[in-house]
């Protein structure tokens, strides 16, 4: 089972944190610091698996990571998960982000947090792997974008209606309204 997914830059700044086990804010920050210390000190030519830190579960948990340009993608898993399977899952996650954002970079993770979380939610939910087919994940993301566009159109409808009423210039139209002369009304006009 996946216990946490962490993405941070070369300076240790978190760009995506997803914990599937409850930790306090202080514990989460300590986990990020400790994980960054463990991973950033390693050479590029060593394997991408290491035992988890003391806070995240110790020997029973492993940190499996990939380093792409300025970002570290780290999955903390228990002993029931396959290290090679998780490496493949990280690759699928990064390639899906790459296709979604056309050459993903750190800024995409910052400015499109909702899309990144949606993609991650399609891959992993509750610490369990749901989907590894990139085409299916991208299809679900496109469906979500269509729904968001439809909702934007519906939510904008009241504003468009108000704008249309304002552009009608109703006070002027009421002034310009010509009523027919009715017999007997001319006597009332003269009375006032």
TrEMBL record:
Gene3D superfamilies: 3.30.450.60
SUPFAM superfamilies: SNARE-like (SSF64356)
Domain named AP complex mu/sigma subunit: residues: 1-145
Bilayer topology: Peripheral membrane protein
Pfam families with a match to the protein in the record: Clat_adaptor_s
Family, similarity comment: Belongs to the adaptor complexes small subunit family.
Designated name of the protein: AP complex mu/sigma subunit domain-containing protein
Species of provenance: Mesorhabditis spiculigera
């Amino acid at each position: 089972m996946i216990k946490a997914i962490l993405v941070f830059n070369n300076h240790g700044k978190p760009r995506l944190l997803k914990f599937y086990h409850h930790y306090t804010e202080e514990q989460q920050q300590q986990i990020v610091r400790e994980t960054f210390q463990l991973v950033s000190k390693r050479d590029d030519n060593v394997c991408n698996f290491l035992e988890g830190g003391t806070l995240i579960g110790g020997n029973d948990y492993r940190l499996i990571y990939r380093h792409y340009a300025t970002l570290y993608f780290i999955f903390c898993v228990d002993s029931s998960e396959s290290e090679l399977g998780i490496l493949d899952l990280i690759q699928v996650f990064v390639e899906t982000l790459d296709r979604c954002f056309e050459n993903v970079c750190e800024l995409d993770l910052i400015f499109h947090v909702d899309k990144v979380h949606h993609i991650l939610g399609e891959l992993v939910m509750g610490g369990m792997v749901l989907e590894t087919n990139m085409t299916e994940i991208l299809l679900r993301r496109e469906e979500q974008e269509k729904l968001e566009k439809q909702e934007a159109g519906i939510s904008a409808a009241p504003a468009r209606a108000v704008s249309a009423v304002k552009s009608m210039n109703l006070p002027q139209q009421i002034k310009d309204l010509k009523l027919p002369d009715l017999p007997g009304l001319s006597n009332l006009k003269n009375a006032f």
